[in-house]
Amino acid sequence: MKTAVIDAGGGMRGMYAAGVLDGALETGVHFNYAFGVSAGSANLISYIAGQEGRAYMFYREYSGRPEYMSPSNFVQTGSFINMDYIYSTLSNSDGEYPLDFEAADASDTELTVVATNAITGKPAYFSRRWMDQDSYDIFKASCSIPVVNKPYSIGGVPFFDGALSDPIPLEKALEKGADKVVIILTKPKDTIRKPTKDKVLASLMKHYPLAAEGLRTRADRYNETVARAKELEKEGRVLIIAPDDTCGVDTLNRSSDNLHKLYVKGLLDGLKIKDFLEAPIVSADKEQVEADESEHSAPADNTDNPEA
Question: Rounded CA gap, 227 and 207, in Å?
Fold first, then answer.
């Protein structure tokens, strides 16, 4: 049985997913594959390294610092969120809260970080071989929200947030051979994503028209993938974990109390994962056979059974 987890990100709402993954750590849950989009990629590397509570600190404590994100950052650099501060200054071996690179590197979980090529608008899937001790550019690229940030370059190629091209990489997880997939969303499960805000931001991306088109149509891909995931959920192949509400937290919202509430929601929901992974898969074919057999069998006589 091969298992995968997908963290779809969501800016500061990623605090919910941080809680979910800490809940998974507490119950000893292990995944064969992990797919991170935007902030989801940062959550997953802390999970893979076994650093429970690390992501929480970045969302609740460090995000309030002007070095992390602020208008002054934008004026000075063209990026509201300082990726180098987050994934180098704080995360390097001499940083305030270093990533345990040795533990992450020793893990047998296969990590894929999703970013979007700013020139072609197509998804880029970075494996862990693209990172090294104190070299975490793939996370900076995956988290670069267009307009809010300039694209982040790797090898001379500019990249934006992975959500523009593959917001929920469910098909990649299935292609890898995952039998069961846990999808962590940071909006309520039945949310139908609207393209209104995306279209406004896309209109400002004059230098990257193909990436802008990806942003313009992101909502459709997101909604289609959630619908597909719900079908697989009926077979026991997918578990969608999502908050019942976002506690007032949005992409760039930094309310400390609300972030904590969202984390607690995630932590409790993360405790459900182990039972899902241990439950049997119900194939669609088996369900159809049972339905057909029921349709052609004689009706049961339950007259004498008061519990029927």
Answer: 33
**Mean pLDDT (whole number) for 63-69:** 96
- DSSP string for residues in 266-280: HHHHHTTHHHHHHSP
pLDDT digits (tens, 9 = 90+) for 161-187: 999 999 999 999 999 999 999 999 999
- The whole-model pTM stands at 0.90
Task: Kindly state the DSSP code that residue 209 receives in the 8-state scheme.
Answer: H
Provide long-range contacts, Cβ within 8 A and 24+ apart, for 60-69: 60/15, 60/256, 60/259, 60/260, 60/263, 62/86, 62/90, 62/96, 62/97, 63/12, 63/254, 64/254, 64/256, 69/252
Alpha-carbon gap, residue 45 to 103, rounded angstroms? 10
Q: How confident is the model at residue 282 (pLDDT cuts 50, 70, 90)?
A: confident
Cα–Cα distance for residue pair 252/10, rounded to 1 Å: 9
Taken in order 276, 278, 284, 289, the sign of the CA dihedral is: negative
CB proximity list for 254: less than 8 A, separation 6 or greater: 12, 63, 64
Residue with tokens 């941080």: 18
Q: Tell me the backbone φ, ψ of residue 222, rounded to 5 degrees.
A: -60, -50
Per-residue tokens: 146 = 């267009």
Tell me the C-alpha to C-alpha distance, in Å, between residue 232 and each of 6, 7, 126, 180, 291: 15, 17, 26, 9, 18
Give the C-alpha separation, 238 to 86, whole Å: 32
* Cβ atoms of residues 240 and 189 within 8 Å: yes
